[in-house]
Amino acid sequence: MQLRYNYRIDPTPAQRIALGRAFGCARTVFNDALRMRNEAHENGFPFVSDAELSRQVITEAKKRLERAWLGKVSAVVLQQALADCTTAFRNFFAAVSGKRRGPKLAPPRFRSRKDNRQAIRFTRNARFKVAECGKLVLPKVDEVAVRWSRDLPADPSSVTVIKDAAGRYFAGFVVEVPAQPLPAVEAETGIDLGLGYFAVLPDGTKIDSPRFLRRAEKRLTKAQRALSRKEKGSKNRNKARRKVARAHARAADARREFHHLLSTRIICENQAVFVEDLAVGGLARTRLAKSVHDAGWSAFVNMLEYKAKLYGRTFAKVSRWFPSSKPCSACGAVTEAIPLPVRKWTCACGKVHDRDINAAINVLAAGRADRLNACGGPVRPSFGMAQLSEAGSHGSAAS
User: Fold this and answer.
1) How confident is the model over 357-381, as pLDDT tens digits?
2) Cα-Cα-Cα-Cα dihedral of 367, 369, 272, 312, to 10°?
3) Nearest to 272 by CA among 185, 360, 193, 182
4) Candidate list 10, 356, 370, 390, residue with the active-site label
5) 132 is catalytic
6) Quick one: pLDDT at residue 380?
7) 143, 192, 203, 305: which is the annotated catalytic residue?
8) Distance separating alpha carbons of residues 17 and 21, to the nearest angstrom
9) What's the rounded Cα separation, in Å, for the pair 127 and 158?
């Protein structure tokens, strides 16, 4: 499977200028390609092919005086910008036609130099390499210092250089990693995700929600108040904007580290992991939107999924329509309604339930049942012989 290994890089001032030039050229090529295809559509012409697009916005554009500076960056960067434009249109058409699952996508938009994220991609054709001294050699950029936090498991097929809103630079290497199965264990778990507790496991383990964004609100409020007082377009406003971005980046980095540590621990300790398929998009439109985004459930579930595939574990999602909180995990009776403030309730069978633990047990049971069915087990119980005391069907008038 393909994984991305991200590292912080420290370009020199001259290299930052070269990277900024590459960001601008890639953005210009993308916008020219998007404009050319939009104009063709508005005028009733056929969809412009990739080959014609490459000839017009790269090869011929370099010959014109107003686009001659495109030749100062690697041609691979420009070709990858065209590939991104084609991918954006392909995803949009697939979403409109219903071939792509998920929410509908908007048409591709023009890129701006004020976007929070600037990125360029180098493939093997660009002949990038990691030098023996540990520096990343990029064409027409030179050797860039990399903070190697871990070794690359294999030779990368591409590298993406990213500049985020906080002004930090990263290099993301795409590497083909073989599966690394862990020794089999007997434990299986279901996970109930929530806001009071980030995750609750069937054995009663409750993992507190760190609430990284909430904890950083005081610092963010102060930084955003200072930003609002700065004159638009001034250097001081740009400094204040970066201070706000750095505060958000610290919260996001802490959240990502928490997700990685917890997901790795759960995957290593359990042979099968089941989690509820939450409708995060819908919950993010409620009054709990800030707390839902702060929890980052989707990122955590995605980590569980790819790590389970990497380490040879079973991972599955339970339907979001499954009422995990209502069934009694002891007798199976379903309670009609349990208000959200009610955290503990007693079933008719006498069993006292903690709402979150009961939901985690039910998620585990539902995941096991779905896995049995997927592996060839019976989808529904087999038919048995009717007893004499049971009501039978009446014969037809013809019999």
Assistant:
1) 888 999 999 898 877 665 545 444 4
2) -110
3) 185
4) 356
5) no
6) 41
7) 192
8) 6
9) 10
